[in-house]
Amino acid sequence: MTSSSEYTPPKIWTWDKESGGQFASINRPIAGPTREKELPVGRHPLQLYSLGTPNGVKVTIMLEELLALGHSGAEYDAWLIRIGDGDQFSSGFVEVNPNSKIPALMDRSGEKPVRIFESGAILTYLAEKFGAFLPTDPAKRAECFSWLFWQVGSAPYLGGGFGHFYAYAPTKIEYAINRFAMETKRQLDVLDRRLAESEYIAGDEFTISDMAIWPWYGGLVKGWMYGDSAEFLQVQEYKNMKRWADLIGERPAVKRGRMVNRVSGELSSQLHERHDASDFNTKTQDKLQPAG
Ligand SMILES: N[C@@H](CCC(=O)N[C@@H](CS)C(=O)NCC(=O)O)C(=O)O
């Protein structure tokens, strides 16, 4: 193994703003707002402040699935939070999520607005509010929650670990890439074995655990994440994952959910803000910014 760094940590760590890397301009070691700015509020009961990353997509898939089931109370305004520009550090955003990370949701349907942050908490809140995509049978519900919490605990090894060191870090560190590639492949094997015995993650029903896991691990086996990572990790080995990733990806609500707050890829797949169901047909970037 080669060592690409001669770094010896000092006795006391200090904040080195010049440390580089793709997120150097937004990362900082302190919490709280950096600027005074209120968040916009639209006309619907639910106000989502997010970006079309895997964590954001979990929630837009859930909202589109709820609407597809006929829950009109799940109508929502999706506002774009550009984390690369530091929108998550505005005073308004920090009031909804003191952790300054997307997604964040405000439920304004009741007498007092309710804030919810952390994607797993948002999925659970919406599932309980609408009585959907969360089994009521205690054993099935426990299985669903087990996989939901598995996702929330595991994805940082994929995103913050493997993805960061394989795709984003300014230098390639063999030790870090090996460590997190190993863990990511182990996680894919966990899912693949589960999906060999079960149609969906939590059993025979599509639930919030599928919605949480699919944007991360489904995206990985579909080759949508971190450059050439699909080849590097040989994701085609995980045949049950592939079956499940395709099954979920074909759902119309999942296709719509992926478009919301998305700022990369085909212009026709980017709906920067969603305020009405008709926006999918009229407000994608190809319609707003015609070529030429
Ligand atoms: N555990 C959180 C993670 C959320 C998260 O990491 N969000 C990222 C984008 S995917 C973010 O907002 N990053 C901005 C930042 O770190 O400043 C969740 O599941 O909601």
What would you note in describing this structure?
The chain is of the alpha+beta class. It has a domain at 138-251: Up-down Bundle (Glutathione S-transferase Yfyf (Class Pi), Chain A, domain 2), CATH 1.20.1050.10. Helix content is 46%, strand content 6%. It contains eleven helices and four strands, in the order βαβαββααααααααα. It has a four-stranded mixed sheet. Helix 1 (54-68) links the parallel strand 1 (46-50) and strand 2. The N and C termini lie far apart (50 Å). The mean pLDDT is 95. Bound molecules: glutathione. Residues 26, 53, 55, 83, 88, 100-103, 118-120, 152 line the site of glutathione (GSH).
Summarize the structure.
This protein has helices at residues 54-68, 91-96, 119-130, 138-168, 174-197, 208-221, 229-232, 239-249, 252-259, 279-282, 285-288; strands at residues 46-50, 76-80, 104-107, 114-117.
CATH architecture of the domain at 138-251: Up-down Bundle
Instruction: Name the bound molecules.
Output: glutathione
The chain-level mean pLDDT equals: 95
**Residue runs with pLDDT of under 50 for 5 or more positions:** none
Mind summarizing the main beta sheet? 4 strands, mixed
Write down how many β-strands occur, each being a DSSP E stretch of 2 or more residues: 4
- So how many helices? 11
Shape: globular
**Category from helices, strands and their pairing:** alpha+beta
User: What top-tier CATH class of the domain at 138-251 fits best?
Assistant: Mainly Alpha
Distance between the termini: 50 Å
